[in-house]
Amino acid sequence: QVQLVESGGGLVQAGGSLRLSCAASGFTFSSFAMTWFRQAPGKERESVASIIRTGASSSYADSVKGRFTITRDNHKNMVYLQMNVLKPEDTGVYYCKATRTWGAGRSDYWGQGTQVTVSS
To answer: In 3D, which of 50, 56, 59, 60 has the Cα closest to residue 97?
Structure first.
């Protein structure tokens, strides 16, 4: 059974930090790229940060560059999002997503999300 379980969300003041975790099970974690998404109320879900299968490369949305860091531990089947200097506009539900592509095939798995609220 495939599972992605996010944790670490909560309420924090602007300027503070949070570390989100996503625990993966039921699939070959090291074969999947991982992405953190977020969705604010009334807005579309957006990609925040991605990391390749090996963890050697990552990419970020412009809005979080220099403040957020995505990492992964393929031994523990975990992906993390360290969020620093949080702003009220970072508020939303944060989801992790696993993606694998091969030829014409594709697999995507989503977690259930964790709420992050940044107060001003």
So the answer is: 50
Cα 35 to Cα 6, 11, 14, 64, 93: the distances in Å are 12, 22, 24, 14, 14
Residue 105's DSSP bridge partners are: 102
Work out the mean pLDDT of the chain and round it to a whole number: 97
Cα gap 24→52, rounded to integer Å:
15
Reported as a single tens digit per residue, the pLDDT across 75-114 is: 999 999 999 999 999 999 999 999 999 998 999 999 999 9
Classify residue 66 by burial, with Cβ atoms within 10 Å: 0-12, 13-18, 19+: exposed
